[in-house]
Amino acid sequence: MTDKRKNWTKEEVFELYNKPLLQLVFEAAKVHRENHDPQEVQVSTLLSIKTGGCPEDCGYCPQAARYHTDIEKNDLMSVQTVKAQALRAKSSGSSRVCMGAAWRNVKEGADFDQVLEMVRTVRDLDMEVCCTLGMLTQDQARRLSDAGLYAYNHNLDTSEEHYKKVISTRGYEDRIETIGNARKAGLTVCSGGIIGMGETPEDRAAMLVTLSCLNPYPESVPINALVAVEGTPMEDQEQIPIWDMVRMVATTRIVLPKTTVRLSAGRTQMSDEGQALCFMSGAGSIFAGDKLLTTPNPDINKDMELFNILGLTPQKAYKKGDKPEVNENYKNSCTNDKNEKWSRPAHTIEANVKATISAKEKRKLNHKL
Ligand code: SAM
Ligand code: DTB
Ligand code: SF4
Questions:
Q1: Cα(252)–Cα(309) distance, integer angstroms
Q2: Does ligand 2 come within 6 angstroms of the Cβ of 100?
Q3: Is 213 a catalytic residue?
Q4: For the structural domain made of 10-368, what CATH number should be given?
Q5: Could you tell me the residue ranges of all domains in the chain?
Q6: Average pLDDT of the chain, as a whole number
C-alpha cells in the first residue's frame, strides 16, 4: 500500500477501539470515503476445494481432524467443478473466487499441480483468484502467481500472545513468513483474524498493529466473528456482540486506510442493521455464497436485497488495480527473515487437548454402536 504510513502503537489503536461508538463510526466512515468508493462492495465467493482432515489443532476450526465435528470431508475438487462454481459465482455478482484447502502447508505433487490448473481456469474467466492453502514457500508462491493468482489469504487470526492459546501446531512467525513469501512473488495479501475467541480488546489492537507494520500492509483484511462449532475446543464461546464487530471493522478502517476490510464469517448471526453499520464503518467486501467453507452464510439473494436497500453495488474485478511487482528482496518489518522451515511449537493448550480426547471417546462410542 502506498499511502502515508503511520507507525501505530498498541496504545493508540486500543484508544481508537474504545472511543465512544458513534464517534468511532463517524471517523471510520470519513476515512472510508476519503480512500474508497463507499457505494461499492467487493464480493468474493468461497470454495472449499479440500475439506476436513487437517492435521493442525486450530482451536476454532471444524476442519481439524483431531476434533469430532459434523462436517462432510472431501478430497481435492476437480477443476471442472471449480469452473462450474466460479461461473455460477460470477453470474451472481462475485468478482473473486477464494479457494480454501484444509492443509497445514502446500506440498509439491499432483494436488498442487491441480490447484495451479484451477487458478489458471478461474483467471481465464476474468475473475480475481484468491487461494488459502496454508503455509507456502517462496517458490510455491511464485508458481501460483505465474498461474494467475491475484491474492493469497493467510490470516494472523489474533495477537501473537493470544495465538499461543489457540494453536500449538504452528507458530505466529510462520504465518508472517508465508505472508512475506506471497509478497515476494508479487501477490496481493489478504490477512486478518477472528474475534470472539476469548481474546481481550488489547489482543485485537495488537493484531491490528502487527498488520499495520507489514510494509506494505495487506490489500484486504478479513474480520471474522468466530463461528463456534460443536466439537471444537471453542464450541462454548459466547457469540460476540455486534458492537464488537462494528468497533473492530471501524478500527481496522482507520488503522489501515487503503485496505479492503472484509466482513467475513459470522454474518448469519448478524442483523441487516448490524451489517449496515459495518458497511458504514468501512467494510468494503463480503464473502458470498450459501456456505463459507463448512458453515452457513447468508443466501446470495438476501445479500443482494440488502445491497439494494443500502444502495450498494458489487465491485468489478481488478477495480483496485493489477498485482504488485515481484519483489524478491521484500523483508518483513515485523520479524527477522529466516529459513523456510515451519515450526511445530507443540506447547499444551488444555481446551484443545480436552476436545481431542472427547473426540476419541465419541469415535469409540460410535464404533461400538
Ligand atoms: N488451512 C488454511 C489456513 O489455516 O491458513 C486455510 C483455510 S482456514 C479454514 C482459513 C481461515 O478461516 C482461518 O485462518 C480462520 O481465520 C478462518 N476460520 C476457520 N474456522 C473459523 C471459524 N470457526 N470461525 C471463524 N473463522 C474461521
Ligand atoms: C477468512 O478470513 N474467512 C474465510 C476465508 N478467509 C477463507 C473462512 C471462514 C471459515 C469459517 C468457518 C467455516 O466455514 O469452516
Ligand atoms: Fe487446518 Fe486451516 Fe483449519 Fe487450522 S484453520 S485446522 S490449518 S484448515
A1: 25
A2: yes
A3: no
A4: 3.20.20.70
A5: 10-368
A6: 94
